[in-house]
């Protein structure tokens, strides 16, 4: 079954988004640098998915042909029309999303490993849509990266992720399929944004959290 593995965002105001998440009780789960790709992150894990905040820490990585095709540096340095959001799906190893992809041999991955990226992502005004190398939810990880998830904040699984898209945007096939078959949906919005509807372990109304 295809699921949303995680979503990433290059925030316009990284410190502001971190402050917002902290105010809601969220705690970082893990951090990672991506040598050769020129980015670094901090991630917030929930039971079934996670939010990755990204930033550019080495813009010269754009010179790597594979990195250049991803448009990640352009997305992360505030290009006027570049979409700062990425959507990663996961599925069984013997399954595949019925959309055209190319193999991104990310510099930070072990030799021989690649990430399948939807070719519609070649357009930097489109979200970066790709298949995660991982195949399990954070609640199933055994390496400690997920930490306590967001249980200390009384939060469980993400019920819904709303991708806010600027008026006039037309999603490609991969994004359309994900919006049909997973917790992801799209709606018109003034600018690119992500809204999470997160289950509260108390049974109260889900938390609605928007970042952009």
Compute the number of helices: 4
Q: Work out the oligomeric state of the chains in this entry.
A: single chain
Roughly how much helix do the residues carry, as a percent range?
10-25%
Q: In whole angstroms, how far apart are the ends?
A: 28 Å
**Strand residue percentage:** 35-45%
Query: Largest sheet, order of strands side by side?
Result: 2-3-4-1-5-8
SSE string? EHEEEHHEEEEEHEEE
Query: What is the CA-atom radius of gyration, in angstroms?
Result: 16 Å
Mean pLDDT, all residues: 95
- CATH architectural group: Roll
CATH class: Alpha Beta
**Which fold name fills CATH's third level, the topology?**
2,3-Dihydroxybiphenyl 1,2-Dioxygenase, domain 1
In terms of structural class, how would the helical and strand content be classed? alpha/beta
- The tally of domains stands at 1
Number of strands: 12
Shape: globular
- Give a short account of the largest sheet: 6 strands, mixed
Secondary-structure map:
Layout: E1 3-9, H1 14-23, E2 30-34, E3 39-45, E4 50-56, H2 65-70, H3 72-76, E5 85-90, E6 101-104, E7 115-118, E8 128-131, E9 155-166, H4 173-181, E10 184-189, E11 193-200, E12 207-211
Parallel strand pairs: 1-4, 5-8, 9-10
Antiparallel strand pairs: 1-5, 2-3, 3-4, 6-7, 9-11, 11-12
